[in-house]
Fold this protein.
Amino acid sequence: MSNYLFHDENTLAEKAEELGKKAVKLGIIPSFIVHHYPDSQEFCLPEEHNSNILTAPEAYMKFKKLVDSALSQV
């Protein structure tokens, strides 16, 4: 039996937010912003020239890749 980390859009967004906080704590990214809407969330990653706006699945994948990469180098 599998243990899933998320079951729907809301739990996926929660996991993305947790990974984002971990990325900030590790110093990988300086900050991120989550815009909450009634039916979804948008994740904003400030960069030097512009802000990237990501959906919850995109943010989850980006944060996971960044955190996994940083932890594998330790």
Summary: The helical segments are 9-25, 56-72. The chain has a mean pLDDT of 87. The two ends are 31 Å apart (CA to CA). Residues 26 and 67 are 8 Å apart (CA to CA).
